[in-house]
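Everyone, study these two lines:
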Amino acid sequence: MYAELHCISNFSFLRGASYPQELVLQARELGYTALAITDECSLAGVVKAHVAAKECGLPLIIGAEFQLKEGIKVVALATDRTAYSELSALITFARRRAPKGEYELHLADLEHNLKTNLLIWKVQHDCAGNDYYADILQRGFSDRLWLGFSNLLLGDESERYHAVYQLALRWQIPMVACGDAAMHHPARKMLLDTVVAIQHVTPIEQLGFRRAGNGERYLRSIETLQSLYPQAMLQESTHIARRCRFSLDELKYEYPPEVIPPGYGAPEYLAFQVNLGAKKRWPQGVPLDIQQRIGVELALIHRLEYEYYFLTVFDIVNVARDRGILCQGRGSAANSVVCYCLGITEVSPDNAQLLFERFISEERKEPPDIDVDFEHERREEIIQYIYKKYTRERAALAATVICYRSRSAIRDVGKALGFDAPYVDHLSKSLAWWDSPNDLQERFRELGFSGEAHMVQLFFTLVHQLRGFPRHLSQHVGGFVITKSILSELVPVENASMKDRTVIQWDKEDLEAVGLMKIDVLALGMLTAIRKCLALISPPEKMLTMADIPQGDEATYAMLQRADSVGVFQVESRAQMSMLPRLKPKEYYDLVVQVAIVRPGPIQGNMVHPYLRRRQGLEPMPDIHPVIWPIVKRTYGVPIFQEQVIKLAMDAAGFSGGDADRLRRAMATWGKNGNLMTFRQKLIDGMLLRGHALEFAESLFEQMKGFGAYGFPESHAASFALLVYISAYLKNYYPAEFCCALMNSQPMGFYSPSQLIQDARRHSVVVHPVAINSSAFDHVIEKDACGVSAIRLGFRIVKGLGDTAAQLIVAERMKKPFADMGDLQKRTGLNAAQLAGLIAGDALRALSGHRHQAHWQARAIKAGAPLLTHENNYDDQVQLNAPSEIQDIVADYNSLRLSLKRHPMAWLRERHELFRQCRRYAELGEMPNRFVRVAGLVTGRQRPGTESNLIFITLEDETGNTNVIVREPIQQRYREALLKARVMMVKGVVESSQGVVHVTAGELIDCSRYLTDMELASRDFH
């Protein structure tokens, strides 16, 4: 028998060529006694191995490989919980003392930090210092030390074995067989060479001795191992394995105690804060039904011992509110009366009670789910508060595993195979993210290469294998792990790329698998915009809050029904805007559905049209089994939300709590090595057994597949719907202030500043240009004599100026306005580049008249001409011609990314017959089923992840935004124009239904040459 004690996975980034799960399953198939995952200074892959090992019944050993600064390699194996803590802390120590992605460890560090771990020394047989190292290691590790020998059939085995054997005899250190595996199967050898080449930034053919000499670094059969090693060395591996009894199941999470003041227990303090909050929410008296719901929720929280979790979130939210930072909680636990009373969410129970009842599942033992969104510009304050309160020893962000996608795989594999760099770059850029392997072969043929050539076929194979491989660890968007004890004893912690950030080595799925709690501290741009808008409209005596926004405003819902939602949270995409006139939201719960229904999950499951038809009374409600009717009643018999799907699996198919939890995890990983298909037959059989129709059972499973990557929980939609309503209300009643706030919150949202400004002007908002003697750094609201609000553009959008220079200009101007260019330069000390930025943005019109004149005067300042030495002799009387209209428009776009002058399409239409033949957006509503030509600036491309494979293009002209639908055949025929055009003409048919107008494309024409000098950016495939 044999236990593999030295094996790395692909979480030894760019060293291993197999997933941890693959290694575990292969070891089980080969009959190994145990398997150790020993990634280099990392435990990043062990949870995935742990889950796979539990499912197949293979004992898993947790370990790590280290390359010490002295030049020797060792493998540490954890025997018990104490040893695991030592190992995790040692990895943290090594990683924290080095830049991200690296580590530093010395021989002395092992003895000081590994008191109970077993140690395997991978001896270099030709090292002159082996006896010196043997002396140190034996004194430090005694009966916990082995010499590991790997027979990889490299031709010098006898020499290497003899050297290690003699060392073992001299120092009485036992020897053990180690496979030094880096892949689960020899078929991965070429991929192994490829990742090593990527690591060394060297083509495979130039790797030399850095490339494995053969394909033996895989999990080999017991029979093969018996022919390569003495039986005693194989037996020794099993003896070591028996000493390693630790399992990740032993890890226990403990909440930080700081959130409970002295004299309180956790249940008492949570109840106290909830009741205090309830009195504030209902100052006239807490309704009886609310009191009952509070009692039920607190009792459930107590049974599951989650008080510390809610109080930790409560503490973080309180800090944000004390600092004036808007925040909003969402998630299954957030939509509770407890969270409403604690101020974690503003979703009232009056609305929440209309939702599908799902709080915390006692049956499934799910951990609480509360994501808290903070203003994106100020979230860092909250992050640093958490670090300061709990210290870096007890708080860190979760990891996100960055994996290879098609383009990055193409680039790296191409370089590893030695393809020409320009060719590889062109190939990767020509491939869209949704392209299939067949599309990749088509791109090869387009570049003149035969798809049958050996190197081309090898390239295809390697790209396919590398896609999805982990590339490196990055930080999660905001998932914090906070513990009572030292965090590094639970999981290794390493430096993030951002300053003052640390991350653990496990991702979200890993944390769930081992039962560690995570608190999501997320950034949301709309909260920043709402806070800034509220500040602009608040009376001097009181800052308004989201709670001050009147609910149920009919004019706001009417605006949404017209799809007048540019800039409105969550419903500003073309797909959402197409749904609004069809769904016609009239109340809060309609917005909950609106947020969730325009997702590939409901679309792929064919749920959208039945919902709309039944809602509109065009289709009768189906005969639904009384068991499941309460689950889908509010959504007209259609399961739209993730929670409904899970509940249906339990009530309609008989899934147990454990089955439902596994189903939820499978749905979450569907499309990413998930195993959702294994539940198909169980679901269908269970539903048929309970009298449900086969058609309904099959459609439900299709819905699950859609939800796997794109489904939306009702618990999140409920919180988002509140922000939809608030942002829509602000847009409807305060269009200038809302647009100004959005502009001051960039980058965020779906639309560019240019599109936001154009939408505001279509709503009769006056917008003033950037002006040296009027603008602030931010965009501001100016009121006329009648109190009507207008927007003054700020210096923040002037390309090349910079924040410091802009603030200096404003400070100097507050003393007195600038008189001329010389006065500006003298008082601010702006350099030539900063002056050029102001000129390009046409901010100096009041001083110089126009851009050309300003450039002339700026050159004089740069030259230091004598006439500029006296302030009164600034003007040399040379008058240049003003720029043409199109020169001004182009300069505006290139400097500011927007223009307040005529829209470029209006200018093109005037100059070119080709564009005069094109219909404007405003004309399309009166032309249903007509063949038309439309043209505009390409401002967005979208491709929802649905089976229809449609691409949506947004074309902007002087009257609005035309939505163009491009079907798959047209995508292939006009691929270049589709992906690269900045100005596009489309020939197609106008389609109109329920107020939704779009053009179905038949031909795409790239017209970018007509505006060659203009810098135009589109928002593509976000």
Q: What stands out?
A: Confidence is low (pLDDT under 50) at residues 353-359, 863-870. Residues 714-733 form the longest helix (20 residues).
